[in-house]
Amino acid sequence: MNIVKLATIALRNLFRNSRRTLITVLVSAAGFAALAILAGYMDFSFYGLRELTVCKGFTAGGGTGHIQIFNRESLQKEELFPLQYGIEANEKIRADIESIEKVSFTMPRIEFNGLISNGDKSISFLGLGVDPEKEAGLIQYWNSLEKMAGKSMSDAAYRQLENTGAYGVLLGQQMAKTLNAGVGTDLMLMSTTVDGAVNVVDVKVAGIIRGAMKSIDRHYLVAPLETAMSLLQTDRVSKIVVVLKQTEDTAPVGELIEVRLRSQGDEQVFSVVPWEELATYYYSVRDVYNIIFSFTGIIVVALVFLSCTNTMLMATMERVREIGTLKAIGVSNAWVGLMFLFEGFFIGILSVAGGLVFKYIFSVVINNSNFKMPPPPGMSTSYLLKIFSAVEFLPWIALLIILSTTLSGLLTLLKIRKISIVNSLTHV
User: Fold this and answer.
1) What is the DSSP letter of 87?
2) N or C terminus: fewer CB in 10 A for the chain?
3) 343 with 312: CB under 8 angstroms?
4) Which domain holds residue 104?
5) Residues near 139 by Cβ (< 8 Å), separated by ≥ 6?
6) Do 163 and 263 share a domain, yes or no?
7) What's the domain count of the chain?
């Protein structure tokens, strides 16, 4: 007996009890589809969370962009006064960086804090000084992502801030509620200048926005760059944010920016920090999701393995006389066991084929059903559920399913070794 003939017999054996084979294949196919859909959801979650980190962020510092540039001393030393280690002459630096082909645009930001008051009540704020037009451009970057089509963000708040003038501000929803403020309300900002003096500016609420995190929303404030500079009495900025045409170019462009900055011969020494080093929340969520997805995957594979094992053991018990006959004509236990391994392998192949069909059908249904997921822990906004194709994961999932169905035949070897020729031939 050769391998080809043995494989042919194994394939024909699958149709001897077609109903049981069909049920086993359906269970295994459902396992493949479940893992594939899980991989698609995982791919969607990580991609969306990555781009959301770049565009909106999960701190009072706003979206990280793809790369941020700091005065190196600001990362190594504690500032004695606001913007002590800020970046000077940022226009020149930004113009040089924007000349790089893969860079879309750059924008300056100032991080500051202080007190905001409506005259009767004062609360602390975490402020972000921005260029409204550039920040709107960061939202447009999100809206241009093909994979996130249908999940657009509105840049109306930043456009409104731009139209309101230098002393307009955007407030987080919880902050606006605490101050009983609405669009058009006059407020006062109080902070410490770079010289250590206390300064106050009058501002007008240009719009209300929702922060990504609930804990930040009650202290979140966005102001035009001119307002922040006027309040702090400075012309420096905290950092320069670089937005690329696509996230995958972060590493090579970061290296090129470092070369450009060193070649300027400026007295300031800069640190070029990619978004990955600023995305603490992203990696925390990703680690949790990886554990959940891995645990779920183990359970699914175990169910597929046990289902197929049960089928193999039942087939062994039904074919005791056949196995005895094969052994009587000189077929070894190893060859008989290999026949069952082939049967498990073919069940795996059929399961993968059926699983691909199930995965496609369920993905289409889910992606067109507009299922809304609840906000992740700590966040304030829900999101639509989508399943990505996750093509890069499918070969590994297929291999996992085929291995589990194939190896399920190993337990039959123990049973086959115990079957004696004499007893098997009289088995009823």
Assistant:
1) B
2) C
3) yes
4) 65-274
5) 55, 153, 154, 155, 158
6) yes
7) 2
Indicate the helix (H) or strand (E) that contains 425: helix 421-425
Q: Which residues of the chain have pLDDT under 50?
A: 428
Global model pTM greater than 0.90: no
> What letter does residue 80 receive in the DSSP assignment?
S
Confirm if 110 and 79 have CB atoms less than 8 A apart.
no
- Residues 7-28 have pLDDT tens digits of 888 888 888 778 888 888 898 9
Could you tell me which residues come within 8 angstroms of residue 409 by beta carbon, excluding any fewer than 6 positions away? 312, 337, 340, 341, 343, 344
Task: Examine the domain organization and report whether 355 and 238 are in the same domain.
Answer: no
| End-of-domain residue from the set 255, 274, 293 | 274
Nearest one of 59, 60, 56, 50 to 152, comparing CA atoms = 56
For residue range 232-256, list pLDDT tens digits in order.
999 899 999 999 999 999 999 999 9
Q: Residue 55 domain-assigned?
A: no
pLDDT computed for residue 426 by the predictor: 57
Instruction: Indicate the residue among 274, 293, 319 that finishes a domain.
Output: 274
